[in-house]
Design brief:
287 residues; 9 helices; 2 domains; lyase activity; 8-oxo-7,8-dihydroguanine DNA N-glycosylase activity; alpha+beta; four-stranded antiparallel β-sheet; hydrolase; lyase
Length: 287
Protein backbone atom coordinates (compact mmCIF):
# COMPACT_ATOMS: atom_id res chain seq x y z
CA UNK A 1 0.00 0.00 0.00
CA UNK A 2 1.37 3.45 -0.85
CA UNK A 3 1.88 5.43 2.34
CA UNK A 4 2.76 9.03 3.12
CA UNK A 5 6.30 9.04 1.62
CA UNK A 6 5.25 7.47 -1.68
CA UNK A 7 2.10 9.58 -1.91
CA UNK A 8 4.12 12.73 -1.20
CA UNK A 9 6.56 11.72 -3.94
CA UNK A 10 3.63 11.15 -6.33
CA UNK A 11 2.23 14.56 -5.40
CA UNK A 12 5.55 16.22 -6.19
CA UNK A 13 5.80 14.27 -9.46
CA UNK A 14 2.27 15.24 -10.50
CA UNK A 15 2.78 18.86 -9.53
CA UNK A 16 5.82 19.00 -11.79
CA UNK A 17 3.95 17.41 -14.72
CA UNK A 18 0.39 18.72 -14.31
CA UNK A 19 0.54 22.39 -13.29
CA UNK A 20 -0.51 24.54 -16.23
CA UNK A 21 -1.71 21.58 -18.28
CA UNK A 22 -5.29 21.19 -19.45
CA UNK A 23 -7.27 17.99 -18.98
CA UNK A 24 -8.48 16.81 -22.38
CA UNK A 25 -10.49 13.81 -21.24
CA UNK A 26 -11.11 11.54 -18.26
CA UNK A 27 -12.09 7.91 -18.78
CA UNK A 28 -13.68 5.82 -16.01
CA UNK A 29 -13.04 2.12 -16.56
CA UNK A 30 -13.92 0.69 -13.14
CA UNK A 31 -17.28 2.19 -12.20
CA UNK A 32 -16.97 1.00 -8.60
CA UNK A 33 -14.00 3.35 -8.13
CA UNK A 34 -16.05 6.55 -8.45
CA UNK A 35 -17.48 7.41 -5.03
CA UNK A 36 -19.19 10.76 -5.79
CA UNK A 37 -21.97 11.75 -8.14
CA UNK A 38 -22.68 15.43 -7.43
CA UNK A 39 -20.11 16.53 -10.02
CA UNK A 40 -19.59 14.51 -13.21
CA UNK A 41 -16.15 13.55 -14.46
CA UNK A 42 -16.94 15.80 -17.42
CA UNK A 43 -16.53 18.78 -15.07
CA UNK A 44 -12.77 18.20 -15.27
CA UNK A 45 -12.52 18.22 -19.06
CA UNK A 46 -11.10 21.41 -20.51
CA UNK A 47 -9.94 22.60 -17.08
CA UNK A 48 -6.42 23.79 -16.32
CA UNK A 49 -4.62 22.15 -13.41
CA UNK A 50 -3.50 24.76 -10.88
CA UNK A 51 -2.56 22.79 -7.78
CA UNK A 52 -1.78 19.31 -6.47
CA UNK A 53 -2.17 18.62 -2.75
CA UNK A 54 -1.75 15.67 -0.41
CA UNK A 55 -4.09 14.86 2.47
CA UNK A 56 -2.68 11.87 4.34
CA UNK A 57 -2.71 9.15 1.65
CA UNK A 58 -5.08 11.10 -0.62
CA UNK A 59 -3.94 13.12 -3.65
CA UNK A 60 -6.10 16.07 -4.68
CA UNK A 61 -5.81 17.80 -8.08
CA UNK A 62 -7.41 21.22 -8.58
CA UNK A 63 -8.73 21.46 -12.13
CA UNK A 64 -10.57 24.72 -12.76
CA UNK A 65 -12.10 24.81 -9.29
CA UNK A 66 -13.26 21.20 -9.35
CA UNK A 67 -11.08 18.68 -7.52
CA UNK A 68 -10.13 15.20 -8.65
CA UNK A 69 -9.21 13.32 -5.47
CA UNK A 70 -8.05 9.72 -5.27
CA UNK A 71 -6.86 7.17 -2.75
CA UNK A 72 -4.81 4.25 -4.08
CA UNK A 73 -5.80 1.86 -1.26
CA UNK A 74 -3.83 -1.36 -0.81
CA UNK A 75 -3.29 -2.46 -4.41
CA UNK A 76 -3.65 0.73 -6.43
CA UNK A 77 -0.96 2.62 -8.31
CA UNK A 78 -0.39 5.53 -10.68
CA UNK A 79 1.33 5.03 -14.02
CA UNK A 80 2.49 8.07 -15.99
CA UNK A 81 2.79 8.04 -19.78
CA UNK A 82 4.28 10.76 -21.96
CA UNK A 83 2.09 9.58 -24.85
CA UNK A 84 -1.30 8.15 -23.96
CA UNK A 85 -3.18 5.84 -26.37
CA UNK A 86 -5.23 7.83 -28.86
CA UNK A 87 -8.24 5.54 -28.65
CA UNK A 88 -10.37 5.53 -25.50
CA UNK A 89 -9.88 2.48 -23.30
CA UNK A 90 -12.63 -0.09 -22.95
CA UNK A 91 -14.03 -1.15 -19.57
CA UNK A 92 -13.08 -4.72 -18.73
CA UNK A 93 -11.62 -7.00 -16.13
CA UNK A 94 -8.13 -5.55 -16.28
CA UNK A 95 -6.48 -3.41 -13.62
CA UNK A 96 -7.20 -0.04 -15.28
CA UNK A 97 -9.62 2.03 -13.21
CA UNK A 98 -9.24 5.62 -14.42
CA UNK A 99 -7.37 7.37 -17.24
CA UNK A 100 -6.58 11.09 -17.35
CA UNK A 101 -5.34 12.49 -20.67
CA UNK A 102 -3.88 15.98 -21.01
CA UNK A 103 -3.97 18.32 -23.99
CA UNK A 104 -0.39 17.37 -24.95
CA UNK A 105 -1.39 13.66 -25.02
CA UNK A 106 0.52 12.83 -21.83
CA UNK A 107 -1.34 11.68 -18.73
CA UNK A 108 -1.73 8.97 -16.14
CA UNK A 109 -3.61 5.78 -15.38
CA UNK A 110 -4.88 4.68 -12.00
CA UNK A 111 -4.71 0.90 -11.77
CA UNK A 112 -5.63 -1.67 -9.13
CA UNK A 113 -4.45 -5.26 -8.99
CA UNK A 114 -6.31 -8.16 -7.37
CA UNK A 115 -9.98 -8.86 -6.85
CA UNK A 116 -10.65 -6.42 -4.00
CA UNK A 117 -11.72 -3.10 -5.51
CA UNK A 118 -10.92 -0.43 -2.94
CA UNK A 119 -9.27 2.28 -5.04
CA UNK A 120 -11.41 5.40 -4.59
CA UNK A 121 -11.93 8.37 -6.90
CA UNK A 122 -13.89 11.53 -6.05
CA UNK A 123 -14.88 14.64 -7.99
CA UNK A 124 -15.83 17.42 -5.56
CA UNK A 125 -15.95 21.17 -5.11
CA UNK A 126 -13.59 20.93 -2.13
CA UNK A 127 -11.58 17.99 -0.74
CA UNK A 128 -13.13 18.63 2.68
CA UNK A 129 -16.45 17.36 1.28
CA UNK A 130 -14.98 13.84 1.42
CA UNK A 131 -15.70 12.36 4.85
CA UNK A 132 -12.44 10.40 5.02
CA UNK A 133 -10.48 13.58 4.27
CA UNK A 134 -12.34 15.82 6.69
CA UNK A 135 -11.79 13.36 9.56
CA UNK A 136 -8.05 12.89 9.03
CA UNK A 137 -5.76 13.40 12.00
CA UNK A 138 -2.80 15.79 11.91
CA UNK A 139 -0.13 15.39 9.26
CA UNK A 140 3.12 14.19 10.89
CA UNK A 141 5.13 16.38 8.48
CA UNK A 142 3.41 19.57 9.61
CA UNK A 143 5.33 22.03 11.80
CA UNK A 144 2.45 21.90 14.28
CA UNK A 145 3.07 18.18 14.80
CA UNK A 146 5.62 18.53 17.60
CA UNK A 147 6.49 16.42 20.64
CA UNK A 148 3.70 18.03 22.67
CA UNK A 149 1.15 17.21 19.98
CA UNK A 150 2.27 13.58 19.97
CA UNK A 151 2.14 13.44 23.78
CA UNK A 152 -1.46 14.65 23.68
CA UNK A 153 -2.35 12.02 21.06
CA UNK A 154 -0.82 9.23 23.14
CA UNK A 155 -2.57 10.36 26.30
CA UNK A 156 -5.93 10.49 24.52
CA UNK A 157 -5.39 7.02 23.03
CA UNK A 158 -5.18 5.53 26.53
CA UNK A 159 -4.23 1.85 26.55
CA UNK A 160 -4.60 1.45 22.80
CA UNK A 161 -1.58 -0.34 21.31
CA UNK A 162 1.01 1.84 19.60
CA UNK A 163 0.80 -0.02 16.30
CA UNK A 164 -2.92 0.66 15.98
CA UNK A 165 -2.59 4.30 17.01
CA UNK A 166 0.08 4.99 14.39
CA UNK A 167 -2.05 3.37 11.67
CA UNK A 168 -5.34 5.09 12.57
CA UNK A 169 -5.83 7.80 9.95
CA UNK A 170 -8.19 9.68 12.26
CA UNK A 171 -5.35 10.00 14.77
CA UNK A 172 -2.29 10.58 12.55
CA UNK A 173 -2.68 10.92 8.78
CA UNK A 174 -0.56 9.01 6.30
CA UNK A 175 1.19 6.23 8.24
CA UNK A 176 0.30 2.68 7.29
CA UNK A 177 1.37 -0.86 8.05
CA UNK A 178 4.91 -0.66 6.67
CA UNK A 179 6.08 2.65 8.11
CA UNK A 180 4.48 1.99 11.49
CA UNK A 181 6.70 -1.11 11.69
CA UNK A 182 9.74 0.95 10.69
CA UNK A 183 8.96 3.75 13.15
CA UNK A 184 8.48 1.39 16.09
CA UNK A 185 11.70 -0.43 15.24
CA UNK A 186 13.64 2.84 15.09
CA UNK A 187 12.09 3.92 18.40
CA UNK A 188 12.84 0.50 19.98
CA UNK A 189 9.23 0.09 21.10
CA UNK A 190 6.93 -2.92 21.09
CA UNK A 191 3.99 -2.58 18.68
CA UNK A 192 1.72 -3.82 21.49
CA UNK A 193 2.88 -1.32 24.12
CA UNK A 194 -0.03 0.78 25.51
CA UNK A 195 0.12 4.35 24.24
CA UNK A 196 -0.26 5.93 27.67
CA UNK A 197 2.51 3.77 29.21
CA UNK A 198 5.43 5.48 27.49
CA UNK A 199 8.06 7.26 29.55
CA UNK A 200 9.09 10.78 28.48
CA UNK A 201 12.23 9.29 26.90
CA UNK A 202 10.17 6.74 24.96
CA UNK A 203 7.80 9.46 23.79
CA UNK A 204 10.71 11.50 22.50
CA UNK A 205 12.19 8.46 20.73
CA UNK A 206 8.85 7.80 19.07
CA UNK A 207 8.50 11.42 17.99
CA UNK A 208 11.98 11.49 16.49
CA UNK A 209 11.40 8.15 14.77
CA UNK A 210 8.19 9.41 13.14
CA UNK A 211 9.90 12.52 11.78
CA UNK A 212 13.12 10.77 10.77
CA UNK A 213 11.68 7.63 9.18
CA UNK A 214 9.12 9.52 7.12
CA UNK A 215 11.56 12.30 6.28
CA UNK A 216 14.27 9.88 5.14
CA UNK A 217 11.78 7.91 3.03
CA UNK A 218 10.55 11.09 1.37
CA UNK A 219 14.11 12.19 0.66
CA UNK A 220 14.78 8.84 -1.03
CA UNK A 221 11.54 9.00 -3.03
CA UNK A 222 10.90 12.57 -4.15
CA UNK A 223 12.37 13.22 -7.57
CA UNK A 224 12.04 9.63 -8.73
CA UNK A 225 9.69 8.61 -11.51
CA UNK A 226 6.41 7.11 -10.35
CA UNK A 227 7.39 3.68 -11.69
CA UNK A 228 10.46 3.59 -9.40
CA UNK A 229 8.72 4.31 -6.09
CA UNK A 230 7.55 0.79 -5.22
CA UNK A 231 11.03 -0.62 -5.54
CA UNK A 232 12.55 2.25 -3.60
CA UNK A 233 10.12 1.72 -0.72
CA UNK A 234 10.96 -1.99 -0.47
CA UNK A 235 14.71 -1.38 -0.51
CA UNK A 236 14.46 1.18 2.29
CA UNK A 237 12.51 -1.01 4.75
CA UNK A 238 14.55 -2.60 7.55
CA UNK A 239 11.95 -4.79 9.29
CA UNK A 240 8.65 -4.68 7.42
CA UNK A 241 8.37 -7.60 5.01
CA UNK A 242 11.69 -9.07 6.21
CA UNK A 243 10.51 -11.92 8.44
CA UNK A 244 13.31 -14.42 9.08
CA UNK A 245 16.11 -12.05 8.12
CA UNK A 246 18.65 -10.73 10.64
CA UNK A 247 18.03 -7.27 12.09
CA UNK A 248 20.65 -4.90 10.70
CA UNK A 249 20.93 -3.25 14.13
CA UNK A 250 21.34 -6.18 16.55
CA UNK A 251 21.37 -9.31 14.38
CA UNK A 252 18.26 -10.86 15.97
CA UNK A 253 15.96 -12.68 13.55
CA UNK A 254 13.04 -10.46 12.55
CA UNK A 255 9.72 -11.93 13.71
CA UNK A 256 6.13 -11.59 12.58
CA UNK A 257 2.64 -11.42 14.06
CA UNK A 258 -0.13 -12.41 11.66
CA UNK A 259 -3.70 -11.14 11.62
CA UNK A 260 -6.68 -12.02 9.44
CA UNK A 261 -5.73 -9.74 6.54
CA UNK A 262 -2.32 -8.31 7.44
CA UNK A 263 0.83 -8.88 9.46
CA UNK A 264 3.41 -6.86 11.33
CA UNK A 265 7.14 -7.38 11.61
CA UNK A 266 9.41 -6.45 14.50
CA UNK A 267 12.80 -7.22 16.02
CA UNK A 268 12.57 -9.02 19.39
CA UNK A 269 16.11 -7.91 20.24
CA UNK A 270 15.50 -4.21 19.63
CA UNK A 271 11.86 -3.89 20.60
CA UNK A 272 10.62 -6.50 23.08
CA UNK A 273 13.61 -7.41 25.25
CA UNK A 274 14.15 -10.63 23.35
CA UNK A 275 10.62 -11.92 24.00
CA UNK A 276 8.48 -13.02 21.05
CA UNK A 277 5.02 -11.53 20.71
CA UNK A 278 2.03 -13.87 20.55
CA UNK A 279 0.83 -14.58 17.02
CA UNK A 280 -2.85 -13.74 17.34
CA UNK A 281 -3.87 -15.89 14.36
CA UNK A 282 -2.15 -19.00 15.70
CA UNK A 283 -3.50 -18.38 19.19
CA UNK A 284 -7.08 -18.46 17.84
CA UNK A 285 -6.41 -21.65 15.92
CA UNK A 286 -5.12 -23.39 19.04
CA UNK A 287 -8.16 -22.50 21.17
Amino acid sequence: MPELPEVEALRAFLQQHLIGATIARVELLAFSALKTFQLPLAALQGAEVTEVRRYGKFIAIDAGGSWLVFHLARAGWLTWMDAMPAKPARPGRGPLSLRVVLDDDSGFDLTEMGTQRKLAVYVVNEPSEIAMVSTLGPDPLADSFDSDALAAILAKAGRAQLKGVLRDQRVIAGIGNAYSDEILHAAKLSPFKPSNALTPDEQERLFRAIKDELGDAIERSVGRAAKELKGEKKIGLRVHGRTGEPCDVCGTTIAEVSFADSSLQYCPGCQTGGKPLADRRMSKLLK
